[in-house]
Amino acid sequence: MALVDDHSKTCVVIGGTSFVGKCLVARLLKLGNWIVRVADSTRLHLSDHNHHPLSTDRASYFIIDVRNKKSLINVIEGSSVVFYVDDDDSCNHDFFSGYRIIVQGVKNVISACKECKVRRLIYNSAADVVLDSSQDVHNGNETLLYATKFKNVYTELKAQAEAFVLHASDFDGLLTCAVRPSNIFGPGDKEILPSFVDVAKSSWAKFIIGSDGTMCDYTYVENVAHSLICAEAALGSRMFLVSGKVFFITNLEPVGSWEFSLRMLEGLGYYRPTVKLPAVVVRLIIYLIKWMHSQANSRNFSNCSSVHNIVQLMSRTMTYDCSVAQAHIEYSPVISMDEGVSSTIESFSHLAKDSSSVILDELYERSKMEQLLGGGEVADILLWRDERKSFVWFCGVVSVFYWFCLCERTFVSSIAQLLLVFIIFLYGYATLSHETPLLSTELSGYLRFEVSETGLRSGARTITNTWNGASYVFTTLAQGEDRSMFIKVVVSIYLFKMLLINFFPTSMAIAIAFSFILFFVYEQYEEEIEGLIGISNELMRHAMASVTSSLPNTSTGPSMSKDLR
Questions:
Q1: H or E element: which one contains 215?
Q2: What pTM value is reported for the model?
Q3: 154 part of the active site
Q4: Catalytic residue among 154, 218, 220, 320
Q5: What is the pLDDT of residues 171-226, one digit of tens each?
Q6: Exposed, middle or buried by CB within 10 Å (0-12, 13-18, 19+), for 283?
Q7: Phi then psi for 238, rounded to 5 degrees?
Q8: Please, which of 73, 155, 299, 431 could form a disulfide with 150 given CB 3.0 to 4.6 Å?
Q9: 3-class SS at 312?
C-alpha cells in the first residue's frame, strides 16, 4: 500500500467516473505525487470500485451535485487543483437540464474554487465548440471563434461553460485554462466506436457514407488525460502564457475519416464496404425519418442518430494545429494512434462480430443467387460462369423464342418446321457418322432416355402432391366457405390469362431477360442492392411505426364508453 508523503498535492476530479475522468484519475495516481478526490453525481458500485483505481489510499470518492454549491465546497475544501471533466451523458439532449448541469454547474464550481482558495482550475472542453455546421476546419488554431451554429445542444453548452472558465482566470487568486480535445476515442468510449458498430450492424454497412477523402483528428483518451496534467503544471510554472487560455489537443496524426473507422470495424470482424453513398442522400433519409417520428411524437430513432453522427463525422474535414499546446504546456502524445486503435479494439471485443458467422462466411462463399438456383448446371449457365456455354444457351433460347413467338406462323406450323429442320440435321449427322463412328456413339448416348428409380419416385410424388393440392382447392371452392381462397384463385387465373395469353410474347421476353441478365447483375452488385433494399425496408418500418403510433389507443375505448354511460 502506498504511503502519503508531505510533498503530495491534493486535487479534485469532478466527473471522475466519466470516460476521460477515469483515465485522468488513473494517470494522476500513477504519477505518485497526487492525492485524488474523485467526485461525481453517480453512486460508485462495488464492481466499479474493484476496477477503478480507488483501491489505493491516495484516492477517495464523493457523491456531489454540481447544481448544489454547498456539496462542491465540502469536496473542494483543502485542495489546490480542480479538474472539471464531464461528458454528454450529463446533457441528454435536453437544453434546460443540460444548462443547469453544464453551465450553471461550471459557475458553481468556479465560485466554490474561489471560496476555497483553490489555485488552479483546468476544464476539459471540446474542439467541436469552434466547428460550424456548414464549414470544414483545416489546421484550426486557438484564434478561431466559437461556432455560430453548433452541431448539438451539448456542444453549445460546453462552449458557454468554457467561456465562463476562461473569463474567471486571474480573479481572487484562481488561475484557469481549458483544453479542447478532438474526437476522443479509447476504452470506455460511449460515442464514436459504438456508433461505428451500430452502423455496421445495420443496412447502412453496405456503403461508405459521404466522402472518403476527408481528414480528421482523433485523440486517444490517455493523451487527453495527459494534456490536462500538462496544463496544470504549466499553470504553475508559466501562468502568464497559460492562464485564461485554451489549447487544442489531438494525437498529431490526422487520418482519413473512413480509413480510421474501417480499421476499427475490421479489427472487430465487420464487413468493409466499397460503394460510396453521398452524404446528402443519407441526410435526407435521416431527416425524413426524424420528421415522421416528430409528427408522431416519438423518439425511437436511436439507430438513425448513430448514422447521423457518422455522417457528420465522415463528411467533414476537421484538423487542428496543436503547436500552441506543444509550446506553452509542453504537450505531446504519450500513446500513438496505432497503439490507441489496437487497445480500443481489444477493449471492445464484446462488440465484435460473432466469430461463428465470420467462419461460416469464409467457408460458404457461394452467392445468394447461386444458392437460390441450386448451384447446379442451371446456375452456372444463368450466372455466366462459362461465358461461351452461357452465350450458346442464350442464343438458343432467343432463337426458340423468335421461332415460336415472333415469326408470323401458327404454333402447329412452327413445330412442323422445327421437326423438319431437326430431321434434316439428324440425316446429315448420320451421313457424317459413317465416316466417323465415334459421332454415332455419342449421338446414341444423347438419344437414349434413362430415368433412375429415385427420379421416377420423386416425379410420381410431385405429381401426386400437385393433384392432391388441386383437389383440395376445388373441394374448398365447392363448399363456398373460404372467400380468400376464391379471390386468390380468381386473381391467379386472371393473371395467367393476361400474361400468358394476352401478353405471351412480352411475358416470355421479360422472363428470358430476367433469367439471363437480372440474376447475373444481382450477383455482381449483391451487397449494394441488399443495402438499398435494407435502407428502403428501414424507411418503410419507420413510416409504419409513425403511422401506427399516431392512431388512437384502442385500450382507452372501454373507459371512455363507461364515462359516456
A1: strand 215-216
A2: 0.65
A3: yes
A4: 154
A5: 888 999 999 999 999 998 988 888 888 777 776 666 666 555 678 999 999 999 99
A6: middle
A7: -135, 55
A8: 155
A9: helix
